[in-house]
């Protein structure tokens, strides 16, 4: 038990993992306009726990996080500063990484699986590639609630992992489902779709459900809660239609498929802060070709008008696995992710066009970065790029270093996958967070005549667009939470904050990164004269990404690696399989 002492003389007893909202009507503070400069908090342990850390972050809300190394638990206390504008709502977050400074795991940088799967679930779909079910049940014990229907959709190829899932399912109301796949395809989507009494939670993230993936690597997650439909709700929404289509493509047993689709239909997804980016195996023609993979991205971006400075701006593609690609296929990807238009000074609308001299930057760790990482050489096992793919002549000039210093994650190797178009002054045209690695299997490949898109794998991601961010801020369901109280990380994503963001009157055409850490500085609602919306985007690496230097060698899982790593481990030459 910890005791938080407030300057008005009152105290609040908290236990590890508790969340308390402090403010008018919540705790004994008379002034609803208290800011960080007026509000001090001290924390003492009544149990004399060692290693106590307390940090106050930002001004609105003031977030106080306390942890002890002895208990390994965290307590978050949020002061809702009702007299001042709300803090920026980050559109996505990063998973907490063990061993970082508290500030690098604060706010939107501190998501945990237990934040996402809380007690009270009525139905839950877990979608992933690899699942350690024992670890997942420790992280989210609410999955064992009596009567809860859990649908697991997986691509796990480890017999022992599948056996463990099926053994748990045999004693509970669970389904374990592995979709059929074409040769060389995977079920790679990482998502939760959760029904609560108060609404529907959709989570799209990048981590396999394995201990090391969720605790020691750089991972991202997009989370949004949606309410049930009411009389004002539209019958359908673009996000809902795409999610419906994707769920149908999983080919679940009829009863589960019907329930999943009906669940989407019962909820109002019109406030979606992002567009869905699915990939579904098959040969897609006609209109279906525009629903998946890089052609879906092309269609979404082609509808947008971006700032003039985005014309021929560079692209960053950041991923953790690499398939066998060709120069022609890289050109297809570049065409899709270069879509969109801008208005020139004389009012003309022109295409953005492909990147100019700065080109495409492929963000990928060097061999030395892997060696010095928090997992040492072992981290490279989750970055399975082989020499034949990584050393492709079309890619070698494009490599850029993993710049995780921006988020305190220099030594936490990336398993996150992100794609964006940026300018040197930290503006983004758009941002993609997805399960898609850089491969034809994930994004799809057009045939020579461009009449068919062939995809081998299931993938799911989101596209953050200025127009959708603006609509979200104006929507009556902005900040909706389907259950409470939310964790500090979910509050930083706006969940449970309510519709506090004012929608800018100027049409939004771009996104301005306001911070790369977990703080809450700045109001976050401003839009520039050019229509660039300021928003807290926790991009975990530096922009622009730094090109490889003369001594940098891209990591390859089958290369020859010599030397002792950061953990004192040495591997034997090229024996890395």
Automatic annotation (TrEMBL):
InterPro entries: Tdp1. One of its GO terms (molecular function) is single-stranded DNA binding. Transmembrane segments: none annotated. The keyword Hydrolase applies. GO terms for cellular component: nucleus. Its main location: nucleus. It is found in: Nucleus. The keyword DNA damage applies. The record marks 439 as: Interaction with DNA. Substrate binds at residues 190, 417. Signal peptide: none annotated. One of its GO terms (biological process) is DNA repair. Belongs to the tyrosyl-DNA phosphodiesterase family. This is Tyrosyl-DNA phosphodiesterase 1. It comes from Elliptochloris bilobata. The lineage of its organism: Eukaryota, Viridiplantae, Chlorophyta, core chlorophytes, Trebouxiophyceae.
């Amino acid at each position: 038990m910890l005791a938080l002492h407030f300057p008005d003389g009152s105290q609040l007893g908290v236990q590890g993992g508790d969340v308390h909202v402090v403010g008018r009507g919540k705790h004994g503070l008379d002034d609803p306009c208290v800011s960080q400069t007026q509000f001090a908090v001290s924390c003492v342990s009544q149990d004399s726990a060692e290693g106590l850390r307390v940090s106050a972050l930002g001004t609105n809300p003031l977030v106080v996080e306390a942890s002890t190394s002895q208990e390994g638990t965290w307590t978050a206390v949020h002061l809702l500063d009702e007299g001042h504008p709300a803090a920026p709502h980050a559109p996505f977050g990063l998973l907490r990484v063990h061993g970082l400074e508290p500030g690098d795991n604060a706010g939107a940088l501190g998501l945990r699986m237990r934040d996402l799967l809380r007690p009270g679930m009525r139905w839950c779909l877990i979608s992933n590639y690899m699942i350690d079910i024992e670890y997942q049940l420790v992280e989210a014990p609410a999955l064992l609630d009596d009567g809860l229907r859990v649908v697991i959709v997986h691509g796990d190829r480890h017999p022992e992992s599948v056996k463990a899932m099926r053994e748990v399912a045999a004693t509970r109301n669970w389904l374990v489902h592995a979709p059929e796949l074409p040769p060389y395809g995977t079920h790679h989507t990482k998502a939760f779709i959760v029904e609560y009494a108060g609404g529907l939670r959709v989570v799209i993230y990048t981590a396999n459900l394995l201990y090391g993936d969720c605790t020691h690597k750089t991972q991202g997650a997009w989370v949004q809660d949606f309410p049930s439909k009411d009389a004002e709700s539209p019958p359908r929404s673009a996000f809902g239609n795409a999610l419906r289509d994707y769920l149908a493509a999983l080919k679940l047993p009829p009863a589960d498929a019907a329930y999943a689709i009906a669940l989407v239909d019962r909820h109002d997804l019109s406030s979606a802060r992002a567009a869905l980016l699915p990939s579904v195996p098959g040969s897609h023609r006609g209109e279906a070709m525009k629903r998946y993979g890089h052609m879906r991205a092309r269609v979404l971006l082609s509808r947008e008008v971006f700032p003039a400075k985005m014309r021929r701006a560079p692209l960053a593609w950041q991923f953790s696995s690499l398939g066998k690609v060709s120069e022609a296929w890289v050109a297809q990807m570049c065409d899709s992710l270069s879509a969109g238009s801008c208005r020139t000074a004389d009012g003309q609308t022109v295409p953005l066009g492909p990147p100019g001299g700065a080109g495409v930057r492929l963000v990928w760790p060097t061999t030395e970065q892997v060696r010095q990482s928090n997992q040492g050489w072992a981290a490279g096992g989750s970055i399975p790029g082989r020499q034949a793919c990584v050393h492709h002549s079309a890619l070698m000039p494009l490599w850029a270093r993993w710049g995780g210093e921006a988020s305190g994650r220099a030594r936490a190797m990336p398993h996150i996958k992100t794609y964006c178009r940026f300018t040197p002054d930290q503006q983004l045209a758009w941002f993609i967070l997805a399960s898609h690695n850089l491969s034809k299997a994930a994004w799809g490949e057009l045939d020579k005549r461009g009449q068919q898109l062939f995809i081998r794998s299931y993938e799911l991601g989101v596209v953050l667009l200025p127009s959708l961010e603006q609509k979200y801020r104006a929507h009556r369901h902005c900040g909706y939470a389907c259950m409470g109280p939310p964790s500090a990380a979910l509050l930083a994503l706006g969940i449970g904050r309510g519709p506090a963001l004012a929608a800018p009157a100027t049409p939004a055409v771009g996104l301005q990164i306001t911070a790369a850490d977990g703080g809450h500085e700045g109001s976050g609602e401003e839009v520039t004269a050019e229509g660039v919306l300021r928003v807290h985007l926790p991009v975990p690496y530096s922009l622009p990404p730094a090109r490889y230097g003369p001594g940098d060698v891209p990591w390859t899982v089958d290369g020859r690696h010599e030397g002792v790593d950061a953990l004192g481990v040495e591997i034997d030459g090229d024996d890395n399989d």
